[in-house]
Amino acid sequence: MIKYVPEMTSVVMEEIPDRVTLAVDISNCRGNCIGCHSPFLKEDVGEELTPSVIDSLVEANFGIDCFLFLGEGRDPERLLELAAHVRSLGLIPALYSGRREVDGNFWEYFDYLKVGPYIPEQGPLNNPGTNQRLYRVLGADEKAPEGAEFRMRASGRRFIDITPRFWHRGLEAQK
Ligand code: SF4
Fold it and tell me: Residue 27's closest CA among 55, 7, 52?
């Protein structure tokens, strides 16, 4: 089961570049960031996030094109089912993970993946010294943007590190 904190759900413009994103805070966080800003998200709090709850959230937030899971919870199978449901609605699934690396199959389900724990000395995504990375994962037939340097997973999935896009902003990254 995946749970979220309904009162923290909001539409955001900066967490995923060029997207209008509905951001949903997921509890039961598996991360262990030293500078954790929301320790309560490590607890089993909130309400169950189901496909029908996602449908209602999407319906109530017309105009979004991306659905961001802020945290991944402790039920990866269910998380991936929910990500697939998001995609079936024509939306882009994105994940902010607090772990250094996510399971290999996550790269098949999300178009944006953020990895790396929050370390106060290195700061969030908008700090050029950050340890965190936001990757844009390209679809199988998708062309890489001109001039973009992409890397490839063993699975053949290509991805681009878009973290530098945050270094021109005053973004207060959430995780
Ligand atoms: S990912 Fe977020 S909620 Fe989880 S430990 Fe890190 S800062 Fe805390």
Answer: 7
- Decide: helix, strand or coil at residue 108: helix
User: Ligand 1 centroid to 61 CA: how many Å?
Assistant: 26
Q: Which domains does the chain have, with CATH numbers?
A: 3-122 (3.20.20.70)
pLDDT at 47: 98
Strand partners for 67? 22, 93
In one letter, which amino acid is 76?
A: P
| d(CA 27, ligand 1 centre) in Å | 9
**Ligand 1 atom closest to 41 (CA):** 3
Nearest CA owner, ligand 1 atom 6: 33
Average pLDDT of the residues of the chain? 92
